[in-house]
């Protein structure tokens, strides 16, 4: 996914062809016009890259089908597109937290425990979702996710638990919530 974005960005021919395809798509009026690249040093870069892939799915399918561009290796199957969509949903769990923690001049200490709590609940939902192989064991309201995403969510929970344990060693996180006018002790009672 990220390599296709780089190939299109780095080639004038591919860049123009992709831009022409985007211009012809009336449903994209006012939206972005190019795939986002994955940048290892940027928070939420994978999320942004995959989201733009979903936005430009039609154009990606068109450009990878043109044999002279030699992009067939980047053509995704229907199952892979479903996985991209699921992965964007799962990565979105982290987007709010990383956006908040990346801001300047934001009082974060009182936000730490609530965000950790929300992350934990969301990751537990992913981990506990049914796998694509499950047949009728859970209700249709429980989403089906690939096993690899469920395992990754469990691994994320283990890392998150490590950091939650570290917050228990410092009273400041708890004091900050108690002193917060819109949370106070009520936040702990509810959770």
Q: What portion of residues is helical? A: 55-70%
Number of helical regions: 9
Strand content: under 5%
Unreliable spans are none
How does the overall form come out from the CA principal axes? elongated
- The end-to-end distance, rounded to whole angstroms, is 39 Å
Rg (CA only) = 21 Å
What is the average of the pLDDT values? 87
Number of strand elements: 2
Helix/sheet category: mainly alpha
Largest sheet geometry: 2 strands, parallel
**Multimeric state:** single chain
Order of helices and strands: HHHHHHEEHHH
Strand order of the largest sheet: 1-2
Give structural notes.
- By secondary structure, this protein is mainly α.
- It has helices at residues 2-10, 12-24, 45-55, 57-65, 78-101, 109-127, 147-168, 172-179, 186-190; strands at 130-131, 144-145.
- The chain has nine helices and two strands.
- The radius of gyration is 21 Å and the shape is elongated.
In terms of topology, how is this protein built?
Blueprint: H1 2-10, H2 12-24, H3 45-55, H4 57-65, H5 78-101, H6 109-127, E1 130-131, E2 144-145, H7 147-168, H8 172-179, H9 186-190
Parallel strand pairs: 1-2
Helix pairs in contact: 1-2, 2-4, 3-5, 5-6, 6-7, 6-8
What attributes does this structure have?
191 residues; mainly alpha; 9 helices; two-stranded parallel ribbon
């Amino acid at each position: 996914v990220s390599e296709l974005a780089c190939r299109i960005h780095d080639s004038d021919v591919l860049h123009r062809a992709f831009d022409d395809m985007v211009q012809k798509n009336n449903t994209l009026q006012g939206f972005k016009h190019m795939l986002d690249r994955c940048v290892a040093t940027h928070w939420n870069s994978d999320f942004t890259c995959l989201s733009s892939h979903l936005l430009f799915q039609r154009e990606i399918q068109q450009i990878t089908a043109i044999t002279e561009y030699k992009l067939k290796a980047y053509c995704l199957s229907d199952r892979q597109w479903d996985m991209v969509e699921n992965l964007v949903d799962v990565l979105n769990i982290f987007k709010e937290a990383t956006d908040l923690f990346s801001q300047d001049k934001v009082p974060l200490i009182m936000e730490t425990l609530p965000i950790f709590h929300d992350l934990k609940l969301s990751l537990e939902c992913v981990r506990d979702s049914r796998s694509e192989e499950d047949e009728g064991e859970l209700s249709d309201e429980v989403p089906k996710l690939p096993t690899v995403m469920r395992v990754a969510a469990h691994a994320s929970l283990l890392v998150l638990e490590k950091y939650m344990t570290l917050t228990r060693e410092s009273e400041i996180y708890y004091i900050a919530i108690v002193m917060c006018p819109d949370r106070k002790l009520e936040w702990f009672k509810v959770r």
